[in-house]
Amino acid sequence: MLVQQGVMGLGKNLRLKSARAALDMSQKDLADAVGVTRQTINAIENGDYNPTIRLCIKICKVLGKTLNDIFWEEDTYG
Amino acid sequence: MDRSGLDEMQQSKRNKIGNQCFLLLLYLLLIDGGLYGFGFRWVEYPANIMILLTLCSGIYVVRLIAANAYVGPNKGKDRTAVRTIMTSAAAVLTGLVVVYLLKSVDLVSKAGIDEIAAPVLFITAAVAITVAVTVGVLNRIQTRRED
Questions:
Q1: Residues of A with CB under 8 A from a CB of B
Q2: Min distance A8 CA to chain B CA atoms (Å)
């Protein structure tokens, strides 16, 4: 079963962080690329904010990943 | 992103803070009215309403700036700083002028409050317009430089 990370308070989005780091991008670089503030990217990575699907898609396009790669994970509880 | 230039997280923060400040204003006005019903008037009308409105507006702006929901990402670093500094300077300037004016005014009597209300309104509006025009001019200059 797939669950959206953050909705259930699953904590940090480490896959977003690693995908960003793989492209050698800072939070500021990614924020500028998708048109948000650095604090918003930081909040998403820390699991403090659930982005809209539009922002998720923008982030995925910039990072060259799919929504599944970044924002969805296997449910480890069931 | 809407016309305000804020991103989605900033918009949600702004909405949350706005709702809280609105409810705060409502409760304070209710308390004010309740106290008057019990025969206690802490400051004469209309100064009590002006003070409560100013207090809630001040809390709103300060919380917006503290939550990084005052200036959007498109404004750039310089413009964010300019806008924040100009707003802070305007707030301090308005505060100083109002305090200076209120020094010589009798706030207990209704006549004294009525006398000072117009100058305070005029000064506040003048400062706000000056700040808005200055920020607009600076933004235009910076946009031209970036192009």
A1: 31-32, 35-37, 39-40, 43, 49, 51-52, 55
A2: 18
Domain A2-73 has CATH 1.10.260.40: yes
CB A1 within 8 A of CB A75: yes
- ipTM of the complex, rounded to two decimals: 0.78
Which tens digit of pLDDT belongs to each residue from A8-40? 455 788 899 999 999 999 999 999 999 999 999
For the stretch B93-122, pLDDT in tens is 777 777 777 777 666 666 776 777 777 777
Q: How far is A69 from chain B (nearest CA, A)?
A: 22
Q: Among B70, B95, B125, which residue terminates a domain? A: B70
Residues B143 and B95 in one domain: yes
Q: For residue A74, list its beta bridge partners.
A: A2
Range of the domain at B20: 1-70
Q: Residues 6 or more apart from B124 whose CB is under 8 A from it?
A: B94, B98
Q: A with B: how many residue pairs have Cβ under 8 Å apart?
A: 29
User: Which residue matches tokens 């230039």?
Assistant: B5
